[in-house]
Amino acid sequence: MPHAPAKRQKREEYKNSLHTNEQNAALPKKKFYRQRAHANPFSDHSLTYPKSPADMDWATLYPAYASRKKEQAPNEGLQILNDNDEEEQRNAIAISKDVKIADIGCGFGGLLFAMAPKFPDTLILGMEIRTSVTEYVQEKIRALRVQNASTNGYQNVSCIRANTMKFLPNFFQKAQLAKIFLCFPDPHFKQRKHKARIVSYTLNSEYAYVLRPGGVVYTITDVRDLHEWMKEHFEKHPSFERVENEFEDGEGEDGTGMDECVKIMRTETEEGKKVERNKGMKFVACFRRVEDPAWP
Amino acid sequence: MIFPYQCLVARTDSDDSNKWTVFGASGSKLVAQSSTGATSVWPQQDEQQQQIVSAEHGEPPGKRIKLSPAPTERGPNFSSIILSSNGEYLIGVTGEDKCIRVFQVDKEGQFQQLSERCMSRKPSSITLTSDDFTILCADKFGDVYALPLIPSPNDEPAENPVVTEQPVDKDFTPSATVLTVHSGRNRRTLEEQLKQKAKGPLKTKEAMTFKHDLLLGHVSMLTDLAYAKKGNRSYIITADRDEHIRISRGVPQAHIIEGFCLGHEEFISRLCLTPLKLLVSGGGDACLYVWDWQNYRLVERLPLRDTALQHRKARSDLSPSLPDNDQGFKVAVSGIWNIPGLDALTNAVLVACEGLPALFEFEIGSNAKSATTISLNGNALDVAFIKGSDNSCSIVVSIDNIHKAGSTTLVRKDKIAARLQYFSKQTDGQWQEDEIVGKVFVGFAGQGSLMDDEATNGDTPIGNGADQASSEKKSARDILYSVENLRKRPGAEE
Ligand SMILES: C[S@@+](CC[C@H](N)C(=O)[O-])C[C@H]1O[C@@H](n2cnc3c(N)ncnc32)[C@H](O)[C@@H]1O
Fold first, then answer.
1. Model's pTM, two decimal places?
2. Measured between CA atoms, how close is A15 to chain B, in angstroms?
3. Is B256 an interface residue toward A (CB < 8 Å)?
4. What is the DSSP letter of A80?
5. Within its chain, how far is the Cα of A94 from the centroid?
């Protein structure tokens, strides 16, 4: 690839130019952030993740909700605490609200940007394994926060790079989340790659762990097999039940009674829009976290 | 020479607490030694070898043994052995064929193999439920399966609440079309899948045809698991390479995660439950972690690395000598064992690290930060505890007789290095080498898998050449030392 260095350089220059002015309100250009479609969820990416949810620096991601000012300017991104002054640092990163909505594999963040104004009092987090795609979403959030400074818009949305298939419990406490979105996940057609799918019987136990009883996992895909797969694996998991028809489809032509988030998910994700343009099918399935049964 | 005992485990006779049996796995062989002096071996030896052993009567076998079978003829090597709580069954896992074998062992320690079940993924750790009915098997793929200890003829073969690998359906039509599949890569995979369909279903040589239930799974390599019962509640505790300790409910609610014990910063390799309801975990970190695991709370950290480094520095007999810079000194925990026989209020564990000729004893839950060290003649491989009826405690330690003390690569020059050492705990708490215990083990000490002597000649680091001898060295190293390999290498990127 003889053009690669030139391309990389352009990207670097572009990204640096964005950072020269924190008040820059221009939205980032997607073309500088495209990245190969698949990342291997099993490999040891040089990921940064907190040792445990208590070590997570949420205040940097949602500065408007930080409950105590930081003494020092934080470094970029997440920080893993060292042992010294653990208590002090934990205080420094305290935040007045917990994240309640997670968009897993958020891609370029279409769902996040549509949800943020609809749930202004709820913290929403996008989680994405691809570095450059994550950077795009972070850059766009920064720009939108600048544009909407007068109304404090988009302060409730953020995005981090994470491999959720391995590290979800590092970020969220038990029963912390109210909604999890799995929109147009990578299908992983190959037989031997099925464990790479973001939905499986065993992984669903982790979604159940971070969701509060009554919370909902939202799924949507354009691939019927994957839809069937996700249905099968959630339906046989005793911690989940499928929601009512109305929740997913609404009633009548105008879909009255359809869940607000299902509407957004059908129309606002990048993939959803692509499928719309191609006049493809969209399959929706949502699952409610049930209470755990009694334990002897 | 004889391959070291890579695994050891001991039982006390249920009728007579003065009687015990120690079991060891040496390469592909199982050996039992009972306190009465009887030894038995699985698989049964051929006559020639038996003669030699009886002629030598347990003398450390020297050069005379030239009947070494070629390494390729040797069966699969054991990676772990455990005993049922009643001591009646021994379960062995072999690495190369991913098999779980169940043996019935009579009072004299004679083995009778009852079953052989090959898993589709390599088991990394097994344990039994407290009622001895069910084997829990954690594998390198991240899953935990339940298998009945004794398969019943009434079991539905391969009854499984969950289809892990969807059977390839002959009439399977990928419902995605070129229209609905958006990325180019997905489209290519889809095309491949259609081609595969034309060729017929994939060979499912991995199918397990016996009863096995998928209980839970991590998207990470599982390294150890433990089973606990508290009152009516049972728990499955699993540890992975990505620093997680997960606490799940026991069967039939193993899909419910109760919590995590988080705090490790490197891989976890070993878990050990203490009688005082604490959990000790260790791996690639500098410390052992002690958990009040039912509340997911860290109780204390014990300075393993510093203790090991101190010992390493004090040992002038070891080569290569330590680099001047201690910063690079790391430990990889290969064993944590409860020390039985202490009073009810104190718990202590013994700890072994890969490639270190020592064992470290730490008191648990008492905030005592110093350790007692047992210095060994070679790298510690495994430990078996013999508990006397008078609350005395002796240990049998298996020693790596192939590699130099302190190294996992350099080969020893002394060909007759002892494969076992014996210690007894004194009333002052110190461990003293115990010749009397050792005398009982003469038969045991002379048994095991034979190795090609060529393999252990020369000073070259193991695994450098392509010849057979060096490939046997390499495989010996792989059998004995796999923990440090769990460490993530910086820069190993996408
Ligand atoms: C097909 S895209 C869908 C993006 C977005 N949800 C949408 O609907 O437009 C799937 C995304 O999941 C991300 N992904 C895959 N595995 C992941 C993992 N283990 N953790 C986080 N993100 C992951 C991929 O990088 C990709 O961006």
1. 0.87
2. 22
3. yes
4. P
5. 21
Nearest-CB residue to B176 (from A170, A209, A225): A225
C-alpha to C-alpha distances, B111 to B47, B58, B90, B97, B106, nearest whole angstrom: 18, 21, 9, 20, 7
CA neighbor of A124 nearest in space, from A283, A265, A243? A265
Identify all chain B residues contacting A43, using CB atoms and an 8 Å cutoff. Answer: 492, 494
Transcribe A224-281 into DSSP letters.
Answer: HHHHHHHHHHHHTSTTEEEPPHHHHH-BTTTTBT--HHHHHHHHHSHHHHHHHHTT--
Assess contact for B423 and B394: CB atoms under 8 A: yes
Residues of A in contact with B216 (CB under 8 A): 202, 205
Print pLDDT tens along chain B (494 aa): 899 999 999 999 888 888 999 999 999 999 999 999 999 999 986 544 444 444 444 444 444 444 444 444 578 999 999 999 999 999 999 999 999 999 999 998 999 999 999 999 999 999 999 999 999 999 999 999 999 999 988 776 554 444 444 444 444 455 555 455 555 556 666 666 666 555 554 444 467 889 999 999 999 999 999 999 999 999 999 999 999 999 999 999 999 999 999 999 999 999 999 998 899 999 999 999 999 999 999 999 999 999 999 999 999 888 666 766 788 899 999 999 999 876 666 789 999 999 999 999 999 988 777 899 999 999 999 999 998 877 789 999 999 999 999 999 999 888 778 999 999 998 888 999 999 999 999 999 999 999 876 655 555 554 444 566 677 777 889 999 999 999 998 755 43
Mutation test of ligand 1: which of A129, A131, A137, A164 has the most ligand atoms closer than 8 Å to its C-beta?
Answer: A129
Whether A98 is catalytic is no
What does DSSP say about strands A240-242 and A211-221: parallel, antiparallel, or unpaired? unpaired
Q: Supply φ then ψ for residue A113, to 5 degrees.
A: -70, -25
The verdict on the CB of residue A105 being under 6 Å from ligand 1 is yes
Rounded Cα–Cα distance for residues B382 and B335 (Å): 7
3-state secondary structure A112-138: HHHHHHHCCCCEEEEEECCHHHHHHHH
Is A280 close to B180, i.e. CB distance below 8 A?
Answer: yes
Answer whether B262 touches A (CB < 8 Å): yes
Rounded distance between C-alpha atoms, residue A89 and residue A93, angstroms: 6
> What sections of B262-303 are H helices per DSSP?
none
Residues 81-110 of A with CB under 8 A from B: none
Q: Among A55, A57, A186, A259, which one carries the catalytic annotation?
A: A186
Whether chain B has a CB inside 8 Å of the CB on A20: the answer is no
Q: How many CB pairs under 8 A join A and B?
A: 140
Atom of ligand 1 nearest to the CA of A165: 19
CA-to-CA separations, B412 to B308, B317, B354, B397, in angstroms, rounded: 21, 13, 16, 18
**DSSP, res A30:** G
Contact (CB<8Å) A190/B263: no
A106 lines ligand 1 (CB under 6 A): yes
Task: Measure Cα distances from A93 to A118, A223, A255, B297, B443 in Å.
Answer: 26, 41, 43, 21, 63
Element (H, E) at B438: helix B435-440
**Please, what's the b/e burial string for B393-403 (b: 16 or more CB within 10 A of its CB; e: otherwise)?**
bbbbbbbbbbb
Measured in angstroms, how far is the CA atom of residue A133 from the centroid of ligand 1?
10
